[in-house]
Structures are given as C-alpha cells and as structure tokens.
Amino acid sequence: MDTHWHLLTDGSVNTQTKVGYGACLWLQEFTAPTDLLKHTVTVKRFEATSSTKLELETLIWSLHEHLASANKQTIEITVYTDSQNIINLPGRRARLERDDYFSRNKKQLKHHQLYKVFYSLMDHLHFKLVKVLGHQPSGNRDLIAQHFSLVDQAARQALRADTL
Questions:
Q1: In sequence order, what are the beta bridge partners of 94?
Q2: Could you write out the DSSP letters of every residue in 94-149?
C-alpha cells in the first residue's frame, strides 16, 4: 500500500548555550485547519548544536521516528524546510562524496557524519525536498506556509521555555 506523507521540519537554537529544539509535523493532507494541528507537532531537544546542524539533526530524527512506525509499507515523503543547506545537499552530493567530505582546503567538513546519514536516508526513502520561505507575514502565507509556521513556533517556544 502506497502512502504519501508531508513532513515539515524546523529548528531554533540558542547560539550561546548551543541548545536547540527541532520540531516536526507529519501530514497526509494539507486539508486540516492549521489551528487543529498544533497538538500534532513533535519537539525534541538537541545539545552541542548550531543552526545548520540542528536543521539536519531534526530532519534525520523525524525521518527515523517515522520509519520506526511505518510498518514496512511503501511511503512517499515530501519534506518541507526553510534550510537552504538541506535544499542544496542533493546537488552537493557528488562533490562531497568524491572529496570524501573534505573541503577544498583539505579540512574534513564539520557535519560530514550527518551528511552521510542524510544521503543514506535519501537513498532509502527517495524523499522530495521543497523549500519553504520561513518567517513570512501571516497575510502572505499559503496553506503550506501556515502549517510550516506551526513547527517554527513550536521550536521557538520550546527554546524560550528552556531558557527561562
């Protein structure tokens, strides 16, 4: 049985403490009103992170959580993110693998392990990536952006609560 899922992910990090919160929302359809979906957003705390690392950690965590509950059925996944780094990773893959995850100045990339996990999940799940413009004024948001604002708000609220 084929099932299509939509995954929305975002994160918020405190750069001083290096603590961040990732949030995800899994949907099969975009038909539910945004205010009814708040309770379905899942949040996780990450430590020793940065904004780039947190976006990857959140996506990987979200995909692993869903895989554990997918009951081996065939699923299609569309991932919605505002992370330019994640959106660019498929296009960077050939060079990163060719150079064994080293930069042009011969330094190993800081997030090379996360990139490897990302590519492995991409190969296994064949998910599609969609760039979402984050932090838009509410009047300019389409339905996807409205739903995306839920993960953005959940991550920011969890981080604020953590620092109180």
A1: none
A2: HHHHHTTTB-TTS-B-TTHHHHHHHHHHHHHH--EEEE---S--GGG--HHHHHHH
List Cα–Cα distances, 74 to 3, 14, 26, 103, 113, in angstroms.
Answer: 7, 37, 16, 36, 26
The helix or strand, by DSSP H or E, that contains position 153, with its residue range, turns out to be helix 143-163
Distance CA 109, CA 156 (A): 27
Q: CA–CA separation, 69 vs 148, rounded Å?
A: 22
Which token pair is 98?
Answer: 């060719």
Task: Give bridge partners of residue 20 from the DSSP assignment.
Answer: 13, 46
pLDDT digits (tens, 9 = 90+) for 84-102: 999 999 999 999 999 999 9
Three-class secondary structure of residue 54 per DSSP: helix
Q: Which of 81, 79, 66 minimizes the C-alpha distance to 10? A: 81
Chain segment 3-29, per-residue pLDDT in tens? 889 999 999 999 999 999 999 999 988
| CA separation for the pair 164, 160 (Å, rounded) | 7
Residue 83: count other Cβ atoms within 10 Å of its Cβ: 23
- The enclosing H or E element of 61 equals helix 51-68
Q: Which domains does the chain have, with CATH numbers?
A: 3-87+129-163 (3.30.420)
